[in-house]
Amino acid sequence: MTAQGPAFDPVTLQILWSRLISMADEAAAALLRTSFSTIVRESNDFATVLMDAEGNSLAENSIGIPSFVGLLPKTLRHMLAEIPLDELRPGDCLITNDPWMGTGHLLDITMAQPIFRGDKLVGFAGATSHMPDIGGTLWSADCTEVFEEGLRIPPSKFLIEGKENRELARIIRGNVRVPDQVMGDIQAQVTATSVCARRVLEFLDDTGLEDLVALSATLQARADAAMRKAIAALPDGTWHGTVYADGYEDQETRIQCALTIAGDQLSVDYAGTSPQIARGLNSVMNYTYAYTVYPLKCALDPLTPRNEGSYRAVSVVAPEGSILNPRWPAAVNARHLTGLFLSGALYQCLAQIVPGMVVADSASPAPRPVYTGRDNNGDRFSQVLFGSGGMGAAAHRDGLNTTAFPTNSGSGSIEAFEASAPILVWKKDLMPDSGGPGQFRGGLGQEIELEVMTQESVRLSLIADRMKHPAGGLDGGEAGAPALVQLQDGRKPHPKSRSTLQPGDRLLMHLGGGGGYGDPRARDPAAVKRDLADGYVSPEGAQRDYGVMP
């Protein structure tokens, strides 16, 4: 024992840390198995986090969405500013979806359950997941203010000493298109946090610990030391990166990044980034923070488990009023169309320092269509098809095909999607020549074709980018193929707005390829031959891009 509490030897500490992660993973499994929507069940758009009594993250589930990295503790602190600790009771469960407090748009609901051991608060179990609907104007990018984008739930108690807050539940049900799915997913979050809370109490009983204070401090210090060691190994200095996004119609957007290393500290400044716009592309500071620290951790300290300490050595600033730190009440519904570009700017900086530790740009964000209407039985449906373009190549290997980065949302089962909405998927194929040429080729994108199978019209909301600015290459590598969305007759619906599809209409989407790494003419001819045999590269592409005759 020490003055601060028990001391932990390295072996014991690793065992305890692994068990905490397993608790977060078990909570995630409970959320997956009890949720109603395919967004959670199939596409993994959620996270579960165990936090200590001060709201610091101790363990996150293994497959949580990066946009939720480090944000549940921030959201919890906002909740506790409005609902103080002395008002919490066993069985309470807090809820909010405020974009500036949480993960950046109204569709993500965050819940946090206090964990009591007797009368003592020992921690919090948290969960965030993307809802199938939150009212408003669907998941789209064409709103001008957040008020248009759906129902905002300020920090509230969804459970009061174990009993549902019926008035709040009625308000939510009365403002969403698919209330059974939404309320089912919210109840799944309650289940997940309850599972995590029970496991924490069992953990304390098994280990003999009175609380998580000493263990939390030790684990955070260990994660902090690992990240600082990785940063300290890099040279001091400032490096710059710039990426461009399609923006909204003629309002192209730019992300300007300056990455500074000073000893064991790293700072990121987004000064020079485009000002916020009156459309839903704005990324609140929380979301900007998450998609800054996550790709940095992937590159610099990929093996140490994440917790609050992992990010203490990293500071992130963005000009207030920019697309990376918009002022309330900016529209933010499609904030991922900005946030998912940050890794490209960051990796441009790191590629100047440690080129072997980063990948070329990936084809995220990929187009996402949201279908809403009534099926042939007259029942309401609201479904989004998740899919991924290609991942950027690394300095030593080709990019992964149809694999998202920096997000890790999954595509899910087509059978589950078709069972949940009257949409038929005719095609889902890899696209030859879509990976950016390079000594190491970018990951391939995919082609998807969908048909409306209803007897009445369906509302389509598109959330798409990368049509003008595909994923770029590194160190001489070339860009991947751009994205494309069009109807069967060649008409192109607005990539960031809502339109109407008629029965029998088919939507064709190209999800672009990842950027290449290195000079394409330096690629091993044998690798090109393998790509030809696998259908990844066409004979014309092999000759054009690599100088290899088929």
Description:
- This protein has 550 residues and is α+β, with helices and mostly antiparallel strands.
- Helices cover 28% and strands 22% of the residues.
- It contains twelve helices and 19 strands.
- It has a seven-stranded antiparallel β-sheet with strand order 2-1-5-4-3-6-7, with helices on both faces. Strands 8-9-10-11 form a four-stranded mixed β-sheet. A four-stranded antiparallel β-sheet has the order 13-12-16-18, with no helix packed on it.
- Helix 7 runs parallel beside helix 9.
- The longest helix is centred in the middle third of the chain and has 29 residues.
- It is globular and about 75 Å long.
Note the overall shape.
globular
The portion of residues forming beta strands comes to: 15-25%
Class from secondary-structure proportions: alpha+beta
Low-confidence stretches: none
The proportion of residues forming helix, as a percent range, comes to 25-40%
| Major pleated sheet | 7 strands, antiparallel
How far apart the termini lie comes to 70 Å
Number of strands: 19
What is the topology, as strand order, of the major beta sheet? 2-1-5-4-3-6-7
Number of helices: 12
Rg, Å, rounded: 23 Å
Please tell me the overall pLDDT.
94
